[in-house]
UniProtKB/TrEMBL annotation:
GO terms for molecular function: ATP binding; dTMP kinase activity. This is Thymidylate kinase. Phosphorylation of dTMP to form dTDP in both de novo and salvage pathways of dTTP synthesis. The lineage of its organism: Bacteria, Bacillati, Mycoplasmatota, Mollicutes, Entomoplasmatales. Belongs to the thymidylate kinase family. GO terms for cellular component: cytosol. ATP binds at G8, I9, D10, G11, S12, G13, K14, T15. It comes from the Bacteria. Its EC number is 2.7.4.9.
Amino acid sequence: MLFISLEGIDGSGKTTISKMIKDNLSQKGFKVLLTREPGGETFAEDIRQMILDKKNIITPWTETLLYIAARKQHLDKVVIPALKAGTIVICDRFMDSTSAYQGYARNVGMAEIDEVQNIVLGSTKPDLTIFFDITPKEAHIRLLKRKRKPDRLESEDSVFHEAVYEGYQILISENTDRIKVVNSRKPINEVLQQVDFLINDALNERLSKND
Ligand code: TMP
């Protein structure tokens, strides 16, 4: 029905807000699926464990292909069936994460990633992508307050996280119709309000197209 992806650097607060977005939409009577990548499906969650495990040393292209493999599995088994059943799908990370993290920060190349993802994903791309904007420095402070140990990607140095942020800025400037930015430094209720506004807009557009 409507496919929404949430994007941002680690510690941007998108995961916390995602549950509130889901509750708001469910209360309005919509069928909603909140899911995540890498993961969202049994085998894709297994791939997630492998990618994020700090003991694994993974080359940039292998890492890229693992993320995309997990995405394909999740897409075919969970996302596409849900969309076909009239559900709003909210996905915590999707294809832009691979472009920013692997394409830009790991230097695999954003154009190369686009090529592979165009083949693998086909036409199933998000209708709306919300980018939770916070500087890498602020995000790092938030991450330090977390109780669990950082995973393989979170343990990368500040140069890597700055590069991920830069990668996202490129994607935002090249996809102004699809990717909308919310200020994630604001208090949580204000962030939620910004998100609600964007989703309502996208829903109205979708419903008017179906008229
Ligand atoms: P999460 O902590 O937001 O669930 O995501 C796990 C980590 O994987 C996070 O550091 C971002 C990273 N990631 C990529 O590098 N490429 C991808 O394609 C995806 C989906 C996530």
